[in-house]
Amino acid sequence: MEHSIFIHILSMLVIAIVAIALLRRLGLPAILAYLLTGVVSGPSGFHWFTQLQMQSVAELGVVLLMFTLGLEFSVPRLWAMRRTVFGLGSAQMLVTAFFAGGVAMLVGQDLVAAVVIGSAIALSSTAIVLKLLNEQNWLRRRHGELSVSVLLFQDLAVVPLLILMPLLAKGGAEMSFNSIAWGLLTGILAFLGLMSFGKWILPRIFDEVARSRSNELFVLSTLVVALVTGAFTQWLGLSMALGAFIAGMLLGESQYRRQLEADIRPFRDLLMGLFFISIGMLLDFNLVMQYWWQVLLILAGVLLSKILIVHGLLKLVGENTKVSLSTAISLGQVGEFSFVLLALAVNYQLLDTEVSTVLVAVAVISMSIAPWLIRHSVDIAKKVSGNKLASQQEPIEIVLPHSDESDVVLILGYGRVGQTIARFLKTEAVPYMVLDLDPTRVTEARAAGENIHFGDACRMALLKKMGIRQASLVVVTFCEPRQSEECLAVARKLAPDVKILVRTRDDANLHELKEAGATQVIPESLEGSLMLVSQVLFKCGVPLARIIKRLESERRNHYQYLHGFFSGTETDFTLDLLHAVSLASGASAVGKTVADIPWQALDVELRAVRRKGEEVDPPPPEWVLRRNDILMLVGKPRSIEKAEEYLLQG
């Protein structure tokens, strides 16, 4: 029997791995792979586990999911966004929950079931929306900020909903206002008590844990704290998941937060996946097929109603059509915490299994199409809103200053780097113009008097209008290689002789950018190393002129000495390594000159030769290799191995 359970668990993990790999290739989130694994492993598939086992796994998953949410909860971030979080977020939750709950009551559900259904539908997927907004670099755009604000309030709203679930189970439809108030008061008192415990006692416990210098003890202590606080809130008649959330908050506010995050991070996705697998097990696929047309009808109704509600609320507060519609589309899906509420509602017998299964199916389908909707939300909003935004932004693009000066600097991109460059140019009274594609940033900067204009730096007509042919210098500050290459091609076509500086993260695309027309490529990470080197040399008494000469030599040689390093325990086999080969008396290379060794065929570079404590860098071609010479080789690990074998054995 135990052997059979082990085989079932192993098979379930294999299914999860295959499902995640396949769905990742299709651009779908991993949560759908976990749900699919649960469907295959549960009653609708191979029926490897009993209903009791599934409920236990589901509750453990809820506890761990709420714990990770509490650990990442940031009070300062919430306070900074309090207006949109508590204003827009609360309005979205209340209006959507009332509308969905009202529709549920119209089709025959009682008041308790309507509250659960309305709350579940009002939630959106924090994990999916934040991940995709981050991938598209939209988190700092207006619709990204609004989406994050709503999601923050929804995450907060889960806490009182978790308090409400067991209270609804106890009183049902006959529950009085006093019992609800007492339950909420109990939850608040438990929260305050646990917060006091976390402030005065928990740090002392973790001080002792920290002295052990054991990561395993850290993780174990964290899990014990989560389960103990969960058991405490359950003893008070509240949800165990609420206690886990508070435990996460306690640890998230402590001085050990960074260490805990580093220790728990490898387990976090797996623990969340455990819960979603359990949800998939609760999904009766036969029942979904039986009610397939209801599932599709509810799905369409949920998406349209949530989009229209968010769009309407944002229009009421004065947001333009493009921002409000793209925000609404991003929040149209049902969220992962809806699974939490539905699972608890079934466990507390607040909702029929058939209704829960249909709603879970609706949530799964809405989350599967969410990536496509979010990626195309801005394009859809543009098409729906027509040319309204274009007409609003048009004056920003057309009304450009006319300057007769030939030494104007054109800055493409006004992020952190672009703004820093502009400040130094302003200090030196060098005229400059800026082009950026973020409307919020452009509006803020123009209000502050900056010479900035809205537009796409890859558009030929716009660069021509900005006067790129008269510019003395063009600085490309965004880091995306494809965007930089496209911008370079357009800029070089319009102004063949202008100097163009391109900022990159590293030198992975240095040669491509040079070929595309860049006068100089500035790799941010490597330049940071050079600046540190210059400070070290200056503090050691090396003359400033000599330091500058050395840095310029390094730039001309394409950062040669910033590549090739001695490998450590964790070796990145995609990078060039620096390796020392000592020539013994019987080595094949002894007696040969440097020119006799086929370095190109070996695909390595001879960086230097050390002989009797002195280093020759680089050795001349006629240099004769002798016994006990140490050769410093740079290349890929496999090439290094091949070259070492050749030098020693021939």
Automatic annotation (TrEMBL):
Return one GO MF term.
Answer: monoatomic cation transmembrane transporter activity
- Subcellular localization: Endomembrane system
The residues that cross the membrane are 6-23, 30-50, 56-73, 85-105, 111-134, 146-168, 180-202, 214-232, 268-285, 291-314, 326-349, 355-374
Q: Which SUPFAM superfamilies match?
A: NAD(P)-binding Rossmann-fold domains, TrkA C-terminal domain-like
Q: Where is the RCK N-terminal domain?
A: 406-523
- Indicate yes or no for the key word Manganese: no
A Gene Ontology biological process noted in the UniProt record is:
proton transmembrane transport
Which Gene3D superfamilies does the record cross-reference, listed alphabetically?
A: 1.20.1530.20, NAD(P)-binding Rossmann-like Domain, Regulator of K+ conductance, C-terminal domain
- Report domain RCK C-terminal positions: 565-649
Has keyword S-adenosyl-L-methionine?
Answer: no
Q: Output the superkingdom of the source species.
A: Bacteria
InterPro entries recorded: Cation/H_exchanger_TM, K/H_exchanger, Na+/solute_symporter_sf, NAD(P)-bd_dom_sf, RCK_C, RCK_C_sf, RCK_N
Membrane topology label: Multi-pass membrane protein
Question: Which of UniProt's keywords are assigned here?
Answer: Antiport, Ion transport, Membrane, Potassium, Potassium transport, Transmembrane, Transmembrane helix, Transport
Any GO CC annotation of this UniProt entry: endomembrane system
Q: Tell me which Pfam families the record gives.
A: Na_H_Exchanger, TrkA_C, TrkA_N
Family statement? Belongs to the monovalent cation:proton antiporter 2 (CPA2) transporter (TC 2.A.37) family.
NCBIfam families linked: 2a37
The protein in question is named: Potassium transporter
The organism's lineage is: Bacteria, Pseudomonadati, Pseudomonadota, Gammaproteobacteria, Alteromonadales
